[in-house]
Automatic annotation (TrEMBL):
Keyword ATP-binding: yes
Xref: Pfam families: ABC_tran, BCA_ABC_TP_C, BPD_transp_2
A GO term from the CC aspect: plasma membrane
Protein name per its UniProtKB record: Amino acid/amide ABC transporter membrane protein 2 (HAAT family) /amino acid/amide ABC transporter ATP-binding protein 1 (HAAT family)
The species this protein was found in: Actinocorallia herbida
Recorded GO MF terms: ATP binding; ATP hydrolysis activity; branched-chain amino acid transmembrane transporter activity
Membrane topology classification: Multi-pass membrane protein
Keywords from the UniProt entry: ATP-binding, Cell membrane, Membrane, Nucleotide-binding, Transmembrane, Transmembrane helix, Transport
Localization (cell): Cell membrane
TM regions (residue ranges): 34-54, 66-84, 90-111, 118-139, 159-176, 210-233, 245-273, 285-303
Region (Disordered): 316-342
Domain ABC transporter residue range list: 345-591
Length: 599
């Protein structure tokens, strides 16, 4: 981003912040109805808190939520129950709203873990309707259809309450910012873009979704408590989806999946609603038209569109061009291989059938530490299915997988904990993250801090995050990608993407690295670079499994080769032995020109 633009945005942010802080004094000086205009801004800030929560769920978690007005409702009930019925101070009511909102969000997610995006949205819609009906029926707690009245922030003046709301808006923004700019946020974005790739990095998709949606629920609960305190009552109608229109429109107008977009969008919508207040019956229509025009003209929202423009994205002058790769792999990246006679990775009698198709039919393969082991075979021979069985992306029908003599876990996301990391056949980068963040995502399992440390920016988080970034930068320099560190991964060339995938996998600290057709589509220079990486990993004691169609590349690089055809192993041994095996020449290199080439 050009420096003048950064300075301009900083100045604009400072001005807007000063206006918000001075707003009660401005309205008191210029308006006879200062209380009303203070309330308008406070209501917009409360809406901003809920929209931040919605953004966490949808923009950063990829979970379409229709539950958020219900989360706001239960947060309001929590505050009302303690302040009105129990007679406790209002801060206690807000404190209770956090676990109530978080608990409801967690419960809904737990019953819908296997639901895809659309079905998850329908489940949250059903849950929202249940919450509303429960509010109408549970009269002893919720007051029924009339709700609970007399909810008030103690002796606080309206001006003082205005500043309380601003404080909570700032806290909600900081929680969102700190969470998303940490390993938790990178993991959430990874799960949203590609759950399989996230699992290959040791990120558990279900746990990641649960954490993000639970935090979003807690923030929504705070919004509900503040909403009840401002209105002075809470009733089931607060949970109606009609009331969620402002939040959804504000989210998409500001820019879903951006940090400041939700707040900016809600501010724009609040201003629009205020300008058309004399035409209240058309509010829904006008907001709908505004949302439609935003989707057509600014599909990424205000902030997202700006960031994609030449003014908002990283400028060519801010990154260096092509960088020469460093000669050696940085220390401390790869663990020392254990002292054992067992193979690093072993599959015994692997069987995987899809109906009548015997994709893998009794495959035995053993990969030693400190070697490059090739797996080759014709198209459709079962190579990639074998790899998916070894890494548990496919459940075995028979056989077993061992890692250094120990049984492999049954879930794909558990396998990296034993030191087995996979690079897929088709590039699976997290393209909406930067090159550096892709490598840091690979380090998620090694980060050693939790979400609370990330939100609070504790010294342990700062220390580990700084060390992780330094290690990631060294890895990128080793691969010759340091000049692209702050570019979006989607902007790289195909060859650079493949190299980045390898670097990201190595960042997880594996003892076994599986590369599925990494040389496909690479230029000769890029193939040489890939070979250099593999040899370096081998020399550091890493077991490298290479699935590849480039015979020349495999024969010149691998120490051992296993040949699969029709789901069965037809040959195994050193390259010189395999290349002359009659079964290999018949099944895989049967064309005379290829036989002559490899012979």
């Amino acid at each position: 981003m050009p420096r003048p633009v950064r300075l301009g945005l900083a100045a604009l942010s400072a001005v807007l912040g000063a206006v918000l802080l001075a707003w009660p004094f401005i309205t008191d000086f210029y308006s006879y109805n200062a209380s009303y205009y203070n309330g308008v801004v406070a209501a917009a800030a409360i809406s901003g808190i809920l929209t931040i929560s919605l953004n966490l769920a949808m923009g950063y978690g990829g979970m379409m939520s229709m539950l958020h007005t219900g989360l706001q409702l239960v947060g309001g009930y929590a505050a009302a129950s303690l302040t009105v019925k129990a007679g406790l101070p209002w801060p206690v009511g807000i404190a209770l709203a956090v676990p109530v909102g978080a608990g409801l969000a967690a419960a809904v997610l737990l019953v819908s873990l296997r639901a895809t995006s659309l079905y998850f949205g329908m489940i949250t819609l059903a849950a929202n309707l249940i919450v509303i009906e429960a509010g109408r029926a549970w009269e002893d707690v919720t007051g029924g259809v009339n709700g609970v009245v007399g909810v008030a922030p103690g002796s606080l003046s309206k001006v003082a309450f205005y500043y309380v709301v601003l404080v909570f808006l700032g806290l909600a923004y900081l929680v969102q910012r700190n969470l998303m700019r940490s390993g938790v946020g990178r993991a959430s974005l990874a799960v949203m873009e590609s759950p399989d790739t996230a699992s290959a990095m040791g990120v558990r998709p279900a746990t990641t979704r649960l954490l993000v949606f639970t935090v979003a629920g807690g923030i929504a609960g705070v919004s509900g408590a503040l909403y009840a305190l401002q209105l002075g009552f809470i009733n089931p109608d607060v949970g109606l989806l009609d009331n969620g229109l402002t939040f959804f429109v504000g989210l998409f107008v500001g820019g879903i999946g951006t940090l400041v977009g939700p707040v900016l969008g809600v501010g724009v919508v609040a201003l629009l609603v205020e300008l058309i207040k004399d035409y209240g019956r058309y509010t829904t229509l006008i907001l709908g038209v505004a949302l439609l025009m935003t989707m057509i003209v600014l599909p990424r929202g205000i902030v997202g569109t700006f960031r994609a423009s030449r003014f908002g994205r990283v400028d060519d002058g801010e990154v260096s061009g092509e960088a020469e790769p460093e000669a050696s792999l940085p220390d401390g990246i790869l663990p020392e291989p254990p002292e054992t006679d067992h193979p690093a990775l072993e599959g015994r009698g692997l069987v995987k059938h899809f109906g009548g198709v015997k994709a893998v039919d009794g495959v035995d393969v053993a990969v030693r530490a400190g070697t490059v082991h090739g797996i080759i075979g014709p198209n459709g021979s079962g190579k990639s299915t074998t790899v998916s069985c070894l890494t548990r992306f496919h459940a075995l029908d028979a056989g077993e997988v061992l890692v250094f003599g120990e049984p492999s876990p049954a879930k794909a996301w558990q396998v990296p904990a034993l030191g087995v990391t996979r690079v897929f056949q088709v590039p699976h980068l997290f393209e909406q993250q930067t090159v550096l963040d892709n490598v840091l995502t690979g380090m998620r399992r090694r980060e050693g801090y939790g979400w609370l440390a990330a939100v609070l920016r504790l010294p342990s988080y700062r220390r580990r995050e700084r060390a992780g970034r330094e290690a990631a930068a060294r890895l990128l320099a080793f691969a010759g990608l340091s000049g692209r560190a702050h570019r979006l991964a989607g902007s790289l060339s195909h060859g650079q993407k493949r190299l980045l995938e390898v670097v990201r996998a190595v960042a997880s600290g594996p003892r076994v690295l599986i590369l599925d057709e990494p040389a496909t589509g690479l230029t000769p220079a890029e193939i040489d670079a890939l070979g250099r990486l593999c040899r370096t990993f081998r020399d550091r004691g890493l077991a490298v499994v290479l699935i590849e169609h480039n015979v020349e590349f495999v024969m010149g690089l691998c120490d051992e080769i296993t040949v699969i055809d029709g789901g069965k192993v037809i040959a195994a041994g050193p390259p010189e032995t395999v290349r002359r095996d009659p079964k290999v020449l018949e099944a895989y290199l049967g064309r005379p020109d290829l036989i002559e080439e490899v012979a």
